[in-house]
## 1
Amino acid sequence: MYDYFNITKVLVIAPLRVAEDTWSRESEKWDHLKDLRISKILGTAAQRKAAAEAEADIYVINRENVVWLVENCKRWDFDMIVIDELSSFKSPQSKRFRALRKVIVKSPRVIGLTGTPSPNSLMDLWAQVYLLDRGERLGRTLGAYREEFFQPGARNGYIVYKWDLRKGAREAIEKRISDLCVSMSAKDYLTLPKRIDNVIPIKLSEQELGLYKTLESEQLLHLSEEDDIVALSAAAVMTKLLQIANGRAYNTEGEPVDIHRKKLEALQEIIEDTDSPVLVFYSFRHDLEAIRGSIPEARELGGPKDIKDWNEGRVRILLAHPASVGYGLNLQDGGHTIVWYGLTWSLELYQQANARLYRQGQEKPVIIHHLVAEGTVDEQVMKALEAKDMSQAALLAALKERRTK
């Protein structure tokens, strides 16, 4: 920008928390960046408008407001666009992709950053690469890309819900985009601390496990006259089983019902036995409520102040949903211990969440505890995470396996 004068105005598109905190805070750490003027296009419509019209070098916006910016920007004069977490634009049907597609041709320089370019399959690559080259390498439409590199796999009648790669397609795709993409593994370029993955088995009583198995087999659990827990589909069954494994489940009225406290007790033991601040990932809102009820000093991750307080050592226990910290947040200065109170089927969320502490700048070994209820679907999720198979097929296979036991 000021050395070669190749660019004059940059737009950075990032997840909300990263847009709020990371880009501006990180720029202050570097002598050659600290004088750059950064304007955050965030907040209300009026605040966003003022920020977009302000004089700055870099404009940072959260991805949810891309549609607003495209519709309200009178003159699209960004000569460079940086898409932080490019994989969040993997769906060509999304409004954010369609909006950006209209104007990105006006920006001569586009850079996409992501650690998970194909979280589900190589089908996810098309929209991302299109934003970089306007369809030059993988085709101008998703249909053309699919026709060339994929063939129908699993289907239900005329509806294809799984596409398989044609023979040699992976190599062909990689060759097509090899001049456009650079893949850098952290372990090859950075000195990362040791990572310790620890599975803590949670043993339920016969009665608690009996309640779990009743819902698993009958899809209905009658606890009292007021409390019925019902699951009407395979996906709903899996969700309810994960809830019960964590200790609570929502009844038909949407109220949480207590099943057991075994994971709460295990979490309290971990906190008591470690001197390090603890980052706890929860799955459901009732998990958050249960943890805060048992550990009042725990703080839920909210805005930039919580991130700052955590990194400066003023937060002993930080509670976060993996989807809320999945991308870009730097939390490595605040601690080195993670507890997965509730597991996730999303490999992308799992890896990204762990990378909040296990990343460059972390100076201590990172310990990742997984609370796994024995005899429950937790075991299947853990197995799938270790095998890095978090597809819909893996989820349904796990449910089938449990039902046949």
## 2
Amino acid sequence: MRILIATAGSRGDVAPCTGLGAALAGAGHEVTLATTDTFASLARGAGLGFRRLPADPRGHGGAGSGRELMRTAAAFVTELGRGFADAVAEGTDLLVLSATTAPLGWQLSEATGIPSLGAYLQPNAPTGDFPPAVMAARPLGRTGNRLAGRFALRMVDRIYAQAVTELRRDLGLAPLSVGATRRRLDTADWPVLHGFSTALVPRPADWRPGLRIAGTFWPDVDAGARLPAAVEDFLRAGPRPVLVGFGSMASGEGERLSEIAVRALRQAGLRGILQSGAAGLAADTTADDMLTVGDLPHALLFPRLAAVVHHAGAGTTAAALRAGVPSVAVPVTADQPFWATRLAAAGAAPAPIPMRALTADRLAAALGRVTNQQAYSRAAAQGARHMSTEDRPGVVLKEIDRFTGG
């Protein structure tokens, strides 16, 4: 079967799809990853085909207010939609759509007859069990959670309105709103596989049957991959260090955040690894208790750490728990407060520290707790054991078999 996985956004949105694609390719399918040019090397490195999606999320960043975030998100998906159909090669048998690309992919599936399914990294279907992942971390009660979840979907529909209108016109489809399409697919029980662990989010009992949790979709890592020699030397030179990294968040705040991180680590008596990321974190190169690194596979580095300080993106949150190490979550935006609270609820992290409230003293205190109180390590280890039992490839391949008659 020729499968196209379509995703767009930050590295955290794209990298997990490389592992999903590699698993499908290993089962004998021909898999192509459609994403933006920035991540072409990720697709090819995983042995997948690559198809270009237009738009670059880096060109639509820097927003502050909620209204401005909505505006920039709409501009990104509108640009994405204008070339989306071109990314689907003739002969594609199945579309696998991320939450970012699904509202566009639905239209293409309707126009071409190509079946589709969702592969989402966050829960976005309304439920009484918790508030929407992209809006609030504070529980609102079962009725309030469901109402907030429906409101969140309406906001998403507004973001995609122009893109979907243009795409349906270009495909020769009659006008139909994003919300109407979504409701039609819900009625048909359109399948969605969620790439996160039930160690963090148990499946809500009020979800429809087609919404399933498959376990975390891990980024593809080459079997021969190794950590750089400088990192290995640093790890062996003393006690387990703490990694501090904020992924694609906090661009331009590197100097301030680096100072906070180094002060907090030293105040807590810990060695540290600063992962530069979009913020540009960096430690003094002459300091023997600190090391600055770029992108490294979480699967190789995290199990050798004492703790991870991170922005609580879905992928980093899962990777820390999988490694059995505690976290200090410093969420910034979007679904990050949600994952931060899920880590704390699991006992693998203290209460989150919002990025705007981050200080060296608060970070040092949190680091002292997670590295000295064994309850955090025990909870993280329990989460890791739970995750190891989840049959991600089996769940995904069983769903794919529905489209092949297997």
